[in-house]
Amino acid sequence: xxxxxxxxxxxxxxxxxxxxxxxxxxxxxxxxxxxxxxxxxxxxxxxxxxxxxxxxxxxxxxxxxxxxxxxxxxxxxxxxxxxxxxxxxxxxxxxxxxxxxxxxxxxxxxxxxxxxxxxxxxxxxxxxxxxxxxxxxxxxxxxxxxxxxxxxxxxxxxxxxxxxxxxxxxxxxxxxxxxxxxxxxxxxxxxxxxxxxxxxxxxxxxxxxxxxxxxxxxxxxxxxxxxxxxxxxxxxxxxxxxxxxxxxxxxxxxxxxxxxxxxxxxxxxxxxxxxxxxxxxxxxxxxxxxxxxxxxxxxxxxxxxxxxxxxxxxxxxxxxxxxxxxxxxxxxxxxxxxxxxxxxxxxxxxxxxxxxxxxxxxxxxxxxxxxxxxxxxxxxxxxxxxxxxxxxxxxxxxxxxxxxxxxxxxxxxxxxxxxxxxxxxxxxxxxxxxxxxxxxxxxxxxxxxxxxxxxxxxxxxxxxxxxxxxxxxxxxxxxxxxxxxxxxxxxxxxxxxxxxxxxxxxxxxxxxxxxxxxxxxxxxxxxxxxxxxxxxxxxxxxxxxxxxxxxxxxxxxxxxxxxxxxxxxxxxxxxxxxxxxxxxxxxxxxxxxxxxxxxxxxxxx
Amino acid sequence: xxxxxxxxxxxxxxxxxxxxxxxxxxxxxxxxxxxxxxxxxxxxxxxxxxxxxxxxxxxxxxxxxxxxxxxxxxxxxxxxxxxxxxxxxxxxxxxxxxxxxxxxxxxxxxxxxxxxxxxxxxxxxxxxxxxxxxxxxxxxxxxxxxxxxxxxxxxxxxxxxxxxxxxxxxxxxxxxxxxxxxxxxxxxxxxxxxxxxxxxxxxxxxxxxxxxxxxxxxxxxxxxxxxxxxxxxxxxxxxxxxxxxxxxxxxxxxxxxxxxxxxxxxxxxxxxxxxxxxxxxxxxxxxxxxxxxxxxxxxxxxxxxxxxxxxxxxxxxxxxxxxxxxxxxxxxxxxxxxxxxxxxxxxxxxxxxxxxxxxxxxxxxxxxxxxxxxxxxxxxxxxxxxxxxxxxxxxxxxxxxxxxxx
Lengths: 605, 406
Description:
The complex is a heterodimer. In chain A, 38% of the residues lie in helices and 18% in strands. Chain A has helices at 71-74, 86-108, 177-192, 202-219, 224-234, 271-276, 295-298, 302-332, 346-369, 381-395, 403-413, 426-429, 439-442, 449-458, 462-473, 477-482, 561-581, 592-595, 598-602, and strands at 12-18, 31-37, 50-52, 55-56, 61-62, 129-137, 141-144, 149-156, 170-172, 242-243, 262-263, 268-269, 284-285, 492-502, 508-526, 529-546, 551-557. Residues 278-282 and 596-605 of chain A have low confidence and may be disordered. Chain B has 15 helices and 15 strands. At the A-B interface, strand 4, strand 5, strand 6, strand 8 and helix 17 of A face helix 5, helix 10 and helix 11 of B.
């Protein structure tokens, strides 16, 4: 009879990854050990949420999957970063996907699920995101909603202009921390708001891109070593695009690596990818240009338009950080001396790094939580600003640290104007508190449904969802109208989620979020012109429900009525514009479904 | 000296050829001369003869708007005859400049993609009922066999001087024609615009089936071509594999969208079109080549541009009257009526060209509500369209041409 205390399974699994991508070389700050939630894993890795399948469709072959539970691997925090072993690639893809998922779950206060999987439950891959680290030979990576898969390509770097790569060197998109986080975010967002991938307006596609970039960029601020290096080399102004060289060059120019200044890696995205494509610079940056309120009116390419959203969020982030650290700077430099890069006191640098990391964490929580406060369809940047303000007000009543003010100012400076909002203050920007019929009067049994909700959460599928909705409000027509839904059109309950969120002050907030959608199929893009194509028009409402069953917010995009009609007109206009800008238009007819699809737009990282 | 202008639109088939004659004694400018490989109608010789006799073999300026066959094939086909001309200047878009590093990069990329697409599409041609595929093959053939023409243009037929122009350039007394000015509106050298002339980033490996693959094998020794052949049943069960019903789509996603790429490449080349606003004797004429949406986007939208479009007296319709080669906002900005409009077009080989709604919209602004089409010129064996009973004021037709004098 053995005598030993039981050992609980570990709560976390340590895995080594590249902090950025292989192009930054084996510098110390480019290797990172991240902690992902522990789960027993099969070869692949194959876990509860994610299946890494290393199939190469261009070469029609497999690479053997890694066993992360093998003791040789477990004992050294996973394989060491390398480009030459596909098993490390599998490990890194798994680790970064899981880390991204964890961030969403902790901010949202619930488990996330991928786009609905209607396949058989016995399927070993059921409800798992497929991750193909070497899907094909192509300078691309994307999320495919139909396969519920992330596909990462690999390619050879440009011969003429390879940047820091060797000409002809193989570049793996699955080794770019940013690209993995970006694509994972597409998948998570698609699971939370399936209809955001539809071409409803210029903001919808741009939101997907911008949001994915925000999540990818915010991860950089948890890389302590890089952050410290950036703080030293920018004199604490981490938003600056250039890093000072470690040693000043003489008038003869830079002679060694240490004398060459470089771009700030913290505010750039996917540098190796960008350089290998011959663009010389990272693809996008957190802060591209001075804010210009007119830029939004003239920018329609989803990545470029999304960059405006990214710039707004990072403007807020850096502004709060500067504000929060002014006292430290004053203490360190009481005589008003200018800070000289590379000569910060180590303690000061450390404190600044902590503040930056803390601020990034808060901004990330604000950005992610706001998702549950977004309407179910037809997202605009203005809606997102309202969601940011409302969700943060729910979490923190006063804005002592100035997060909301900074966000509002940054959005305003970029011309992001929520529809129908008269002023840019907290109160006006928040969604209106629901003031309609109380749900307890239409459904007195509401509280009893809590238990069913809990059951539902354990095993969510469509049947349960529709049943639950039917039991809740299926028969309450009057209530429907109050929620901005059309009483004459069927309602589909896209999701019902109980939330358990921890506020910054430590208190627990419990709510239910419900997504209700109505659909009108087969709308003509140009009324009366059958050749111009058709589209599906949707409306819907997001409900945030208090624990006692009463609706707190009803965030709706009506299908019909004056507002619904205006919205449909705008969508028509948008689709016409897309058709006009469609590259193949001279020779083939524009097809809204095929040519304005998620895949069409979001291909090309 | 009367400030007269005569614009002669020839009918080369699916292609462009415009001879402009200024003043008296007339000095000449030839804008484009080409026909699509599958859109020729046997008029090229007759056009060449007419150019020769009209100009007395003297051309002050030759413009080649962009390096597509349907705009330059004549310069290759008749290179010997053009060499006997006295040619002042040859105008080309900056993207053709052999010295410009950005242009070089652009051409290398376009060419590399062309090569691969060509191999791919000839090895696996699209099915007969695949309209998109057929359009792609036709678009691609427009890039083929232009070497003689481009070389001749680059050395300005030995007698003249080649000039590479970009948006923003202003040429006064163009080609030494007194009073003729040219404002270059496209192609732009702006960084954001460069991308619109780039072939798509989506340059995956395009292997023609059955061809020796020059694919990269990043981990050749670790490849497992068949799990069943190399793994025991137990090992195979442990290795995660692509579900059978998802394999087809995965392969589809990994395969080349060759058709779409070919059309995108065509679009990229069209966007390198030299867009010229000519002014002479108080009249202004716009020749946009085959500019597509992206090229227009680089300069329209400002108040200045809107005013400039509103003041036009003559418009050559871009890209043979296709769908998105003339933005709606441009049509709307045109003068309310009385504008002379010419479009060189025919519906072979692209059945979707010209686009009717566009021509209808243009007619509203046109002189006598007529947009004059080159396929009204009757050519034996070539399908055309029916002209109105009489041409609007100022227009006259001949054997292979329609003239407009202003």
